[in-house]
Amino acid sequence: MNKNIFVTSPLLPPLEEFTPYLEKIWENRYLTNGGTFHQQLESALAEYLGVSHLCLFSNGTLALLTALQALRISGEVITTPYSFVATSHTLLWNGLTPVFADIDPITCNIDPAKIEALITPQTTAILPVHCYGIPCNVDKIQSIADAWGLKVIYDAAHAFGVKKDGESILRCGDLSILSFHATKVFNTFEGGAIICPDARMKARIDYLKNFGFADETTVVAPGINAKMNEVQAAFGLVQLNHIDAALAQRAAIHQRYCDALETIPGLSVFNAPANVEWNHAYFPVLVAPDFPVSRDALYDALKAENIYSRRYFYPLISSFSMYRHLPSAQPGRMPVAEDIAARILCLPIYPDLTHEDQYRVVAVLRQAAHISCASDPAVHSTGHTL
Ligand SMILES: *Cc1c(COP(=O)(O)O)cnc(C)c1O
C-alpha cells in the first residue's frame, strides 16, 4: 500500500529548536497577553515581510473579523466567490452583506472590471483575496476604491512573503490579513495577523483584539479575544529561521511540476507575472474540457493511489446555503468563477515533498492523459524521476 500524500504538510522545524523557548515560557510563567515572544514575533515579521506595522492574532479568521470592525465597515462589501468560506463568513459575522463579483480567468482573483457595476449607495468596501498567493490587480482595485470612497481589505491569507516590484503586496489597500494556520506557507499551528499602515491604527486593532482594554480600567471598544499566545509566537520565531529554505523548496517543486506537465496536454498551470516574487503556496492545475477525464475523475484517480488533491475552490462560496439567496449569488452571474471551480485541482505541494512522491502524482496525471511513462522524454533525458 502506497503511503498517503496530502495536498499539504505543515512546516515543522526540528523540535529541539523549539524546546528552549518552551523552557523560557515555563520559567517566566507568562503565557499570553502580549508577552516577550509576541513582541519579538511582531517586529521580526514586520521586518521580514517589509511592512511597517503588524498585529498578531490567534487565527486569520479573527484577524479578518477584526479588520472589518477596525475600519467600521457597514452595509455591502464587494468580494470574490472564489475563496475559502472564511472570507465571506466574516462579513456575515459583522452583519454585512456580501456582493459577489466574478473573477479573472488568468489570476482567479476578483475581476476589477466587474466591480463598479455592483456598487450601490450601501457599498462601503471591497474585500479581494490574493488567491493562491498571486497578487490581485491592486492598482485597478485602488483606483475604483478611491473614485467611489470605498475601503479595501485584502484577505492575504495565501500571500505570506509575496512581493510585487520588490515591495510587499501586504502594503496594498487599507488593511491586509494573513493566516498562519497549519496548512499555510508560514504557520504558528493556528494564527494570523493584520498588516496596517500606521501606529494609530495598530493601537486601535490591539485594543479590539483584547476586549477593547486600553488600560486596566478603561474599555474603549466592544473588543473580542483574538490574541496570539506565547507558545504560538515562540513557534513563529523558530519557524521564521526556516522560511526562506521552505520557500526555495516550494519554488523547486513548482518548477518540477511545470516541466512534467508541459508534456501533458490538457492540464494548464498557473504562474505569477515576472515582477512578482511568489510563494508557491498552492499548485493549481486547470483541467481542459477535452482532457480525457473530468476534474472529478482525476481527483478520484489520485485518491485511489492515496494522493489527496483538493478542489480549491469548489464549491463557490456563493453556492452555500447562507449565501445562495443573494441576488449576486445567482447561478450564471459569475460564469468565469463557475467554470474554473468545475475544472480546478490543487496538487500536493509542501517543502519536504520528495521527488518520488511528486513522481507518483505526475504518473497518475500521465496515466489519465493516456501517456505512458516509458515514452516520457523527461524521464530519460534527465536521468531522474521527473
Ligand atoms: C486559511 C484562510 C482563511 C482563514 O484563516 P484561519 O487562520 O484558518 O482562520 C481565510 N481566508 C483564506 C483565503 C484562507 O485560505
TrEMBL record:
It comes from the Bacteria. CDD domains: AHBA_syn. The modification N6-(pyridoxal phosphate)lysine is found at residue 184. GO terms for biological process: polysaccharide biosynthetic process. One of its GO terms (molecular function) is pyridoxal phosphate binding. Pfam families: DegT_DnrJ_EryC1 (PF01041). The active site is at 184 (proton acceptor). Keywords: Pyridoxal phosphate. Belongs to the DegT/DnrJ/EryC1 family. This is dTDP-4-amino-4,6-dideoxygalactose transaminase. It comes from Mangrovibacter plantisponsor. The lineage of its organism: Bacteria, Pseudomonadati, Pseudomonadota, Gammaproteobacteria, Enterobacterales.
